[in-house]
Amino acid sequence: MNISDRLKQLKPSATLAVNAKALELKAQGKEIVSLAVGEPDFPTPEYVREACKKAIDDGFTRYAAVPGLPDLREAVAAYFNTFYNAYAAMENTMVTNGGKQALYNLFQALLNPGDEVLIPGPYWVSYPPMVQLAEGVPVVVPATADAAFKVTVEQLEAHRTEKTRVLLLNSPSNPTGAAYNKAQMDAIAGWAIEKGLFIISDEIYDQLVYAPAEHVSLCSWWTRYPEQVCVVNGLAKSFAMTGWRIGYVLAHADLIKAMTKIQGQSTSNVCTFAQKGAVAALSGGFAVVDEMRAAFRARRDLALKIVGSWPEVVCPVPEGAFYIFPDVHRHYTKAIPDSATLCTALLEEAGVALVPGAAFGDDNCIRISYAVDEATLTSALDKIAKVLFK
Ligand SMILES: Cc1ncc(COP(=O)(O)O)c(C=O)c1O
């Protein structure tokens, strides 16, 4: 088969490799606990499911407008306005197949071949390949566990060249859970605007930030600099709706039009009745989200208490999302020299599936998702410790 050169440069997903191995072991009858997943373990709220079922019966089963149903776009604008005073209109929003397609559309719409995108690391696995698919160049700006996985303006500036076009921010972060505070965010956004960069702010975990930390959105920067900022969000993480594929974006109306062109020639509209469920989610109040946040917070504290007692492991307190990203490299040995080998050993010897830090650009770390109940989390962490300290 002749596969395009563009595709040959893409690495296969490390997350999927872990999953494949876990499934293989499960098929052999082994008991496997997965802390590798990037999705809430809660069900989608009932009123959202009901709204979707009703939408099917009401005939919302046909093609719809490419950028989204008007009532959902209005609800998305209202979300950004209510939570973050964005002053957005419907024309500044668009509905996409998950936050993922919003990001894909953005890179396709913004990048010319060779344009560089600054990506603070550790980073979400899909960012570099998406940039490459748009013929851009991902430039990783690494931050370590000792720096709480946050980059500074000085580090970003050191990686900027005349080809730098976009800065991609993800706070709270997958995989580290790190969330920038207002002073840090303002410093970075102010620098990027002054240098003429375009900022993509992936805020998919905005509802999962744990007090006293507060989510700092770039919506207010978008209001002031609509041609240089956009915000990506969606319902997957906040409303436990990963399979619904509902993402959205806040951007300048011209950029929305450009992305609509891309979506119109690739996937068309997001599933029409899923969009009706999304309207119900955004209009139904956020009490369910508050409950999920409280549960995640308790699990985070539990995970931190256990991992915090592990010797020579550095684990900054994640202020958001549902991951911890401990630096375990001081326990690497000749037999286990890196995060991938460690995760294979954990899977085979302890029956625990994790994603190696290397997949996110930091081989010193492992990503542990705490989107599981507390008993499962405790027993899985105990099993990890047995392999790590044997
Ligand atoms: C940082 C980040 N951005 C975007 C996404 C995309 O989410 P979805 O496409 O499911 O809305 C994910 C999902 O794991 C993520 O972790």
UniProtKB/TrEMBL annotation:
Enzyme Commission no: 2.6.1.-
InterPro entries in the record: Aminotransferase_I/II_large (IPR004839), AspAT/PAT-like (IPR050596), NHTrfase_class1_PyrdxlP-BS (IPR004838), PyrdxlP-dep_Trfase (IPR015424), PyrdxlP-dep_Trfase_major (IPR015421), PyrdxlP-dep_Trfase_small (IPR015422)
Cofactors, names only: pyridoxal 5'-phosphate
A Pfam family assignment: Aminotran_1_2
One annotated GO molecular function: transaminase activity
Domain Aminotransferase class I/classII large: 31-384
Sections of the chain in a coiled coil: none
Keywords, sorted A to Z: Aminotransferase, Pyridoxal phosphate, Transferase
GO biological-process terms attached to the record: amino acid metabolic process
rRNA-binding recorded as keyword: no
Family the UniProt entry places it in: Belongs to the class-I pyridoxal-phosphate-dependent aminotransferase family.
Protein name: Aminotransferase
Gene assigned in the entry: aspB
